[in-house]
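S1.2 Input.
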Amino acid sequence: MVIFMVPNKEILINKAMQATGLSDFGDEWFFPNIDVFIKSLNTQARLSSEGYFGAEQMIIGALINRLRHKNLIKMHPQILNEKVDVKGVLTGLPRTGSTMLHRMLASAPELTAVKWFEAQNYTPLEKEEYNNPSQRKDLAKVMLSFMLEKIPHLMSIHPMDIEQADEEVIILGQLFSSSMLESTYFVPDYANWLTNQNPDKSYSDLIEILQSLQWQDPSRKNKSWILKTPGHLMSLATVVKYFPKAKLIMTHRDPCSTVPSYCSMESALYKINTNNISDLDIGNYWLNRLSYWLDNFIKIRNSFPEDRFVDINYLDLVQTPQKIGTEVLKSIGIKDDYFTKEMMKNWINSNKRENRQKHNYKLSDYGLTDETISNKFKHYIKTYL
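S1.3 Output.
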């Protein structure tokens, strides 16, 4: 029987350096994270042979991005003069409408967001011309096609487009410091370890990457950023510290809907990499994990002034999206002029839920009941719903 193992960090670092001809990773603060992640991959993730290969390539790819990013900064130090203005940071449990709201807000002319293709490769490729990321877009199309081949119903769960706004959690994941990794691989030990680490350096590096993305794309000049990921629930104090002027926009939905919906998404994602994980395992893990994220967020939120936060109910968002979008824009100081309203209206009309296949899932598939979920999230439900 062949036993597959993700190689140790040093082997993967050498492969990344050989692929790029570069060797400067800058501050290597994230190297210990890789060690813990690899150990969890090899002992917990139950990876298939294809899963092991994919995990290895993901780590190498992240290291290559880091090497290229640091080299770009060396070649163009003026990148560090870019002023990053973050107007809003969206968060909340997954499956609460935050993706819809994020993309709708990002359509406003005064705002910008990380695009899906940029999140995958946030630094120009070796022979890429300035302000011409066509090679990265082509790579992103291949990646997305592979994902849809493996999970044909993925678009019904989480619609993706290489040009649309997406989560910076993907970038933070390439720094081995975000919920992206536990959402892609079943790695509880790594996830628990990461929870107890200081996220400051990952957010500091995120700002530097936003500076780079801003410099790479002149159309972003004078625009402000709108960020989004449920993973910010784990790092609220750090988000407030690094984005001191940003509003924290939190989307809310009944956990009896969000938890099984997210478990369905995780089931699809995990099974790209393993043939040996049950939906019951997934349900048990994510019920407790999402509850922990939310409890931690609420505890820290209570230590900050309420005027830092904007709360959005999912039902209001899906019933009157443009009204909610306009209210959020006003709260972050963005004009709701005719052009802005038309841009949001166009986005809404082009991205209607009924244009996608229905997302089907059942509580019982994951060993969950309405009562179990309601009890687990009773404080949250009482406070925000």
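S1.4 Remarks. The mean pLDDT is 95.
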